[in-house]
Amino acid sequence: MPSILILSWEYPPLIEGGLARHVRKLSEALVELDLDVHVLTRGGEESPPEEVVGGVRIHRVREPKRPTDLGEFVAWVERMNADMLAAGVELGDSHEFDLVHGHDWLVAMACDHLARRFEAPLVATIHATEHGRHQGWVHEHPQSHIHGVERWITNRADRVIACSYYMREQIADIFGVPDEKVVMIPNGIDPEDLQPQDGHELERLRLEFAAPDQRLVLLLGRLVYEKGFQLALEAMPSLIGRLPNTRFLVAGSGTHELELRRQAAELGLMEHGTFLGWIGDDVLHSLYRIADVCVVPSIYEPFGLVALEAMASGCPCIVADTGGLREVVPHEEAGLRFRARDPAALGEMVERLLSDAGLRERLVAEASEHVLRFDWADVAERTAALYGELVRERV
Q1: Cα(65)–Cα(86) distance, integer angstroms
Q2: Which of 233, 360, 375, 386 lies 20 to 30 Å from 392, alpha-carbon distance?
Q3: 191-373 adopts what CATH topology?
C-alpha cells in the first residue's frame, strides 16, 4: 500500500477557504483507493494533535492565530513551515513515505525539505498564483516574495497539478515550467455535501432577504478585489431600475468588505440588499437554494468552485467569461457567461435570466448533469495514477 504525506496549511475543522475542503475530499477519496494517506497540517488550541477521520491520518502542528497584515503573514508562514518540517521529520522516523504532496506556496519549504529527506517524489498543487491575484503586480514585497516561492516550488516539484487548463497554461508561462511537468486535474464536488437546512428554515431564510414576489441575486465568496464583486454592485442600480423587484445578497468576508459596503452605500443600494458577512457551511448551502441566480463576477478565477456548488444545488449561474470559469460553466448549456469586467453586460445577462423562467429551468436541468463530471472518485483516480507514475520513475 503506497504511503502518501500531504501537506496543507488548512484542514477541517480549521477552514480558511476552499483549500481545506479540497484536501479533505481528495485525501478521503485516495483512502478509498487503498492508499495510506497522512495529512500534515496546522491546528488550533482545540484541535487534537493526531486523529484518524475518514481513514485519513491527520497530524496537526499547533500554531498561533495568523496575522491579518500580509507582511507579518509571510513571516508567520515561514515559522509554520519550520514547525511542519520538524513534525514531518519526526513522522518520517516511524513511517516510510513513498511521495510528498504539498498544496500551494504556504507549505513549499516544508514539503521540499521532507521530499528530499525521504528521497521521495514531490507533487505540488497550485490552486492560485500571486501573479493572477494581483494582475501581474508582483514587483514589491510581500507579493514578490510569494511569487518567488511559487516559481521555485513549481520548478522544484517533479509534477505540478493545476485545477484547470487555464491554470496549467498560466503556471507554464509565468513560472517557466515545462509543459510536460504540469498536469490538469480539476477540483471535485460532492452534491451530498451541499445539504441545505430543512424546508421551513429555507422559507424563513428566504423571507429574511426577499419577499415572495422579489428576485434574489446571490454574490457569495471571499470578499477580495479579484473576485469582482465591485462589478456586480456597479451593475445593480440599472438592473433594479429595469427590474424593481430585484434584491441582492452578499455573503462572505474578506479584505475588500468595507470598500464594497462603502460602494453599495454610495450607489444607494443598501435598501435593496444585505451584506451577510461570514457564514458557516449550513447557511451557505441553503443560500444556493433560496436564490434566483448566483453571480460569479471574478476578474481572476483559477477554477470556479462557487459556480460548481451553485449548479449542483439547483441555482442558475451567471459567471464572468474568464479563467477556469470558462471550463466549469459551458455558456448557454450549464449556465450563462458575460464579458469579464463589464458591469453592463453582467446586468443584461442577469435581467435575461430573471425574465425567462424557461431558460432558468433548462439551465438548472443541464447543470445537474454537467456537475457529475467533477466527481471526487475520478479526481482521486487521476491523482493516484500520477503518484504511481512518479513512484515507479523513482524506483
Answers
A1: 19
A2: 375
A3: Rossmann fold (3.40.50)
